Amino acid sequence: MLKKEGETRIPAGCAISGFINRSGRRTNGSVIVNSIACMHDRSNGLGGGYAGYGIYPEYKDQYAFHVFYDSNEARIKTEAFIDRHFDVINLSRIPTRKHPNITDEPLIWRYFVNPLPTKLQESQLDERTYVARCVIKINDKIDGAYVFSSGKNMGVFKAVGYPEDVGEFYRLDEYDGWAWTVHGRYPTNTPGWWGGAHPFALLDYTIVHNGEISSYDANRRFIEMFGYKCNLLTDTEVITYIIDYLNRRLGMPLEDVAKVIAAPFWSEIDSGRFSPEEVEKLRHFRNVYSSLLITGPFSIILGFNNGIMALNDRLKLRSMVAAEKGDTVYVSSEECSIRTMSPDVDRIWSPRGGEPIIVTLDK
Amino acid sequence: MKKVYVNEDWCLGCHLCEFTCAAANSGAPDMIKAFAGGKKPVARIQIEEGSAVNFAVQCRHCELHPCVKGCISGALSVKDGVIVCDEERCVGCYTCVLSCPYGAIVIDGAGHKIRKCDLCTQNSQGEPACVKACPNNAIVFEER
Amino acid sequence: MAINYLNPLFEVVRNPDRCIKCRVCERQCANEVHHYDPDLDRMVADETSCVDCQRCVTLCPTRALKIRPNENQFRENGNWSQQIMDEVYKQAGSGGVLLSAMGNPREYPVYWDKILLNASQVTNPPIDPLREPMETKTFLGKKDQSIHYDENGKAVYEKNPYLELDVPIMFSAMSFGSISKNAHETLARAAQELGTYYNTGEGGLHKDFYKYGANTICQVASGRFGVFKEYLDTGAAIEIKMGQGAKPGIGGHLPGMKINEEISKTRMIPKGTDAISPAPHHDIYSIEDLRQLVLSLKEATNWEKPVIVKIAAVHNVAAIASGIARSGADIIAIDGYRGGTGAAPTRIRDNVGIPIELALASVDQRLRDEGIRNNISVVVGGSVRCSADVVKAVALGADAVYIATAALLAMGCHLCRSCNTGKCNWGIATQRADLVKRLNPDIAYKRLVNLVHAWDHEIKEMMGGMGINSIESLRGNRLMLRGIGLTQKELDILGIMHAGE
Fold first, then answer.
1. CATH classification at residue B133
2. What is the pLDDT of residue A10?
3. Which end of chain B is more exposed for a tag (fewer CB within 10 A), N or C?
4. pLDDT tier, B50 (very low <50, low <70, confident <90, very high otherwise)
5. Interchain proximity C437–B32, CB inside 8 Å
6. How many angstroms separate the CA of residue C444 from the nearest CA in chain B?
7. Which domain holds residue C296?
8. Do A253 and C145 touch (CB under 8 A)?
9. Which band of pLDDT confidence, cut at 50, 70 and 90, is reported for residue A3?
10. What is the CATH number for C91?
11. Burial level of A183, CB count in 10 A (0-12/13-18/19+)?
12. Exposed, middle or buried by CB within 10 Å (0-12, 13-18, 19+), for C55?
């Protein structure tokens, strides 16, 4: 019998695309759907998904949980857990549109929640850690339940299928966001599990990722020391946790996060290119956070509460182009998909391996 | 000029240099043949053994070269700094043996001639055979 | 005269067609096996004292010699092997404890050989180390994760003392005394050239070698030989030796006959006296005592040097390692039961301790389960024989490996396992001046450097095949390993899947 995501490790190739409007102008989800449709051949119909930021302005202060349930029992158990830990402001099924290519859908629910203040205080954790722990707990402990989105004013929509069909299924034309990312998946196996599609999300961090990292188990076994559980055995999951750990928990700015996960080679560090102070820092990073270095091919787009970061592995073993038009920045596996969103960009370039592109909202 | 030098710190007194030298200058293609049937080819290098120190001695190719000056038959001569012996002309008077301050010239009793180190310039060894044979780098061939 | 029950273990086979009677074998054998008989005009051998060190074979200019196991046989017995019977005869004659040297030679499973490595195909490209950077630099020490940023956005972090290795391979402890001064010089010079470290063992540090201090790990063991302030200050790190894989639970004993002038000065004991290292440190009877010694040594060296605690791999190694990880030590070195020694009681060497592969796997997992893997680096030794063993060790979770037997082989050792006799024909495990000079460090250190360079190349090739271009991404990356011919229990302990899974 084929094992599903989480029971075995499934390598995958992929397409990714995304954009952000610096000034916070919201764009309809159909734009990102079109951008991935033109890279149809980079996926094989076994997974597609989106992350939209700024899509829930009416609930912008609540954590939006998107949850897959295999059964009603799983839903009842999970809702009991959520009720014990959170104040639920609103809950509903996520509206979908029947699509001939999207089948075997699980129950898909959405909850807007606030942590229960008493529980939060009891836990002695900060709010975001508390929420993250609860999400990890549901995913790890409740059979048949999977929280696949848990940030504020953002949401992940994913399914088994081609990404453009997934976009129609979730009616993304009814959402507007200041940033969108998308993922089309080409796994080398047919798990047929919706939770395994990308993006992967924890709180408002989402990752779309193309590649297969060779450092996976080194990264996984390290990050699991810090309370994370890599249930899906996917690269995307472990990369998300690494970024959550470095950026949110250690407070490291994303520029430095990139220097840890795609650290410069020693030959570059010793090349005289960097100031002595920077060399000292890079040496320290490569010493202390060595287990968080990611090797093997990857191109990722990280979405977070006020921006996106795109990053290639340090050898640039996966394609990734970036472009700029006015106050919008685009990143994609292929130039064609950027051209479908914006045919006449001001500038288009191919970022170097290990060099992050970080774009945040103007404030 | 490159010469053979010996570092007594590393000389083990194993005598491999002697046997290799003898075989290399015997004209035989290998060591087994050189010594076959009880033959005893003569080595041009000799180990001086003591209780703690061993040392391989061979011609220093010195600038004074009393051996050449004293040679009565003109067998010894200096060629590009190397003191060589024309064994055809050697009459076995042993004047050179007596005059060598290092005791580096050897008598080949069988042929009634002398034998001496010519840094393997007259055989097919290339680098001196004793140097190649030394297991402990005690014998080196270098410029000093 | 009483009957000698012991048969020679070996037979010297001399081909008379090749032997030219040059007597090199005779001069090179410290055991006085060969001699020339003028009456017979041929070389003869007294095989009773041959240890099969291969010195004569290697130096014979006509390759006339072979050493073979003695073909003489006792009546076959599946239970009472010839070796066991010989040992009984030996003890019946001597009344003493059997002594052996080097690592456990018994045919226990070698787990390295039951683990296979992965390589990239299609979904992930292999990387060619000749075309792309491939990194094996390794840092050892506590890895304090905390960091904060000041108001100008500048990163502020604390640096713990560490060791920096250009290759994840160090030379493990061998004392001056157990090995010769030339062997020590070889290790020191090779470590310096390779950008790694060698280890003084518990014999102190000879004055001539203080100049290699930056590449020296100074050991402090139960006998405290040669330990004083300048010694501690000179090294790059300090290693507290609690145990050794070849003889867990046993101390050491360097007989007085080996304590010559130089060793006496270096060990700071009178010439000719036995150097006895007790089994325990008499100031460490438990883990809290160890912590005090760790902290005392740090205090003595101004908190600038990492402290290593070396233990033998024994049954509860994971729990011990966990305690050490909380003791303030920066590095733990674990020595497997195949680790070598200059001398050990045979029964101890052959029956005590566990394989390093299993010890490493359980220690690494235990430290991660407890969330303290960052507190300490893990170095393993005890029969790391080749670059593939290094790669497997790192993938199981080791930060670096210690090698010693392989380093001695590079110098010429042929594993005759007679170090305890002090008559090492290769000039390694001896203090006899005429034998010591057989090891010329000028030659030996280059061979050792060659060996490690060769391994480094191979490590890079294997990493590249897996699509990994930096050793840190291999560390603990057990998905890169598969077991072959192992039981589920063994796989569980190693934390790897079976081939085909």
1. 3.30.70.20
2. 64
3. C
4. confident
5. no
6. 10
7. 138-498
8. no
9. low
10. 3.30.70.20
11. buried
12. buried
Length in residues, chain C: 501
Quick one: C52 and C196 in the same domain? no
Q: Assess B138–C contact: CB distance below 8 Å, yes or no.
A: yes
- Average pLDDT rounded to a whole number, residues A105-133: 94
- pLDDT (tens digit per residue) in C304-330: 999 999 999 999 999 999 999 999 999
Residue C198 in this model has a pLDDT that exceeds 70: yes
Residue C98: C-alpha distances to residues A233, C344, C345 (Å): 53, 8, 6
Distance from CA of C8 to the nearest CA of B (A): 26
Considering CB atoms only, which of B9, B18, B32 is closest to C18? Answer: B32
Residues of C in contact with B137 (CB under 8 A): 440, 442-443
Please report, for residues C47, C50, C163, C207, C424, the alpha-carbon distance to residue C8 in angstroms, rounded to integers and kept in the order given: 6, 8, 48, 42, 19
Give the CATH number for residue A172: 3.60.20.10
**A354 interfacial to chain C (CB closer than 8 Å):** no
Interval C396-417 mean pLDDT: 97
A232 located within any domain: yes
Structure tokens that stand for C100 in this block: 């052996």
* pLDDT tens by residue, C133-143: 999 999 999 99
What DSSP character marks residue A246? I
Q: How many domains does chain C divide into? A: 2
Q: B26 with B70, same domain?
A: no
**Are residues A64 and A152 in contact, defined by beta-carbon separation less than 8 angstroms?**
yes
Tell whether B46 and B73 lie within a shared domain: no
Domain that holds residue A163: 12-249+296-360
User: Quick one: which of A35, A49, A27 has its CA closest to A335?
Assistant: A35
pLDDT confidence tier of residue A44, bands split at 50, 70 and 90: confident
Q: Is residue A286 part of a domain?
A: no
Tell me the three state secondary structure of residue A336: helix
Share of chain C above pLDDT 70, in %: 100
Strand partners, A115: A86
Give the domain extent around B22: 1-58+123-144
Same domain, B30 and B65: no
